[in-house]
Structures are given as C-alpha cells and as structure tokens.
Specification:
- The complex is a heterodimer of chains A (119) and B (111).
- Chain A is mostly beta strands.
- Helices cover 0% and strands 51% of the residues of chain A.
- In chain A, strands 2, 4, 5, 6, 9, 10 and 11 form a 7-stranded mixed β-sheet that branches. Chain A has a 4-stranded antiparallel β-sheet with strand order 1-3-8-7, with no helix packed on it.
- The mean pLDDT of chain A is 96.
- With 111 residues, chain B is mainly β.
- In chain B, a hairpin with a 3-residue loop joins strand 5 and strand 6.
- The model of chain B has no long low-confidence stretch (mean pLDDT 95).
- Classes of the chains: A mainly beta (119), B mainly beta (111).
- The interface between A and B is medium-sized, with 22 and 24 residues.
Chain lengths: 119, 111
C-alpha cells in the first residue's frame, strides 16, 4: 500500500525556517517524481515545488523561489522541503504528492502537515 | 499570469448529473495540459479522481468521467450521491518550469 506521511510542521515566526519531511513507503520511491502542494486555510490548492527521481531537476512556484528548497534522499525514501524566510502567506497545510510514472499528474497524496507563520 | 477557472459552486439533486468545468483565462484547454481532477472533503487530503483528461484513478466509480467540452476540461458526475458533496479541484500542467496551476475549486452541494 502506498503511504506518504508528512511531518515537521508547526508554529514559526515570520522570517524563520522550517524543514518538512515526507516518508514514503509501499512503492519504489526512487522511480517517481514528487511534489509539495499547499493549501492555505479556507483556500484552494497551490503547487509549490517538485523534484525528479534522481534530484537532478527541481522546479518551484515563483512565490517561493529563493526561499524554499526541495530535496530527496532515495536511500531513506524521504522527500524534504526546507523553508526559509517564512512569511505569513506561507501559512498552509503542506501535502506531499507522488506523480504517476510517465505522466505529470498527481496520484497519491499524504495527509498533510500544518505550517503556521505568526508572531 | 495563467489563471485556471472553475465554477465557485454548483448544486445537484441526488441521482442527478452535473458537469463541472475547468478553463483558462486566455486560451483553450486541451489534452496537452493533462487536465486532472481531485476531490476533497473538509479536513481531508485530496483524492485523485481523473487524470490525463479522462482516465479514472484506481477505485473511482465509473459515474465520474472526464472530458474536453469545447474549450474546457470537464468533470461529469452521473447519478450524484450524498457523499459526492465535496470540493473539486482541477489542475493543468503548463510544462516543466511553470508546472502545475490549480483552479480555485468548485464546492458541490448535493441536495
């Protein structure tokens, strides 16, 4: 069974940093593109970043470029999101999502972890 | 800036048929955007319903179907049930670097 379990969320002050993790199981993690998608309270979904199977390609939404870094450790079946210079507008539930092989669409989603940026 | 448009809300009667749409602020949606659809109930993670325009995800009932209607992607629910009451999001793939843009979501009420 495919499982994606996020962790690392919490309350952080504006300008602070946080590192999210996503533990993957039930599939060959190293064979899939992975993404982070977020959802601000009461708002819609927003794609944040994604990373190729071997980590050689990474893409970001404009609003997080230069502040967030996506990475992965295939030996640990884990996906990460390092978030620096956090702003109030980064407050959201952050979901880890797997892409279909050979297709750009998302297939499996984690349950999410809440990040709150507030003083 | 690319904006993906969805109806903010829609209502359907139990047993009825409803079609939700997903458009672009400028231009037409085609299969090359790999439109996909996700269902989300409050407090839950999104669930993949339809990917690559019209392929149902594993376990999704066949009363959910995807298509291109005119210049938009469409999600049709045939024989709506009470537990279909959810938020529905579409997303379009804009290519590497620009990647994915979600629509604002449609809140579907079944009553």
């Amino acid at each position: 069974e495919v499982q994606l379990v996020e962790s690392g969320g919490g309350l952080v002050q504006p300008g602070g940093s946080l590192r999210l993790s996503c533990a993957a199981s039930g599939f060959t993690f190293s064979s899939y593109w992975m993404s982070w998608v977020r959802q601000a309270p009461g708002k819609g979904l927003e794609w944040v970043a994604n990373i190729k199977q071997d980590g050689s390609e990474k893409y970001y939404v404009d609003s997080v470029k230069g502040r967030f870094t996506i990475s992965r450790d295939n030996a640990k079946n884990s996906l990460y999101l390092q978030m620096n210079s956090l702003r109030a507008e980064d407050t959201a539930v952050y979901y880890c999502a797997r892409h279909y092989q050979l297709l750009p669409d998302f297939d499996y989603w984690g349950q999410g972890t809440l990040v709150t940026v507030s003083s | 800036q690319t904006v993906v448009t969805q109806e903010p809300s829609f209502s359907v009667s139990p047993g009825g048929t409803v079609t939700l749409t997903c458009g672009l602020s400028s231009g037409s949606v085609s299969t090359s955007y790999y439109p996909s659809w996700y269902q989300q109930t409050p407090g839950q993670a999104p669930r993949t319903l339809i990917y690559s325009t019209n392929t149902r995800s594993s376990g999704v009932p066949d009363r959910f179907s995807g298509s291109i209607l005119g210049n938009k992607a469409a999600l049709t629910i045939t024989g709506a049930q009470a537990d279909d009451e959810s938020d529905y999001y579409c997303v379009l793939y804009m290519g590497s670097g620009i990647a994915w843009v979600f629509g604002g979501g449609t809140k579907l009420t079944v009553l």
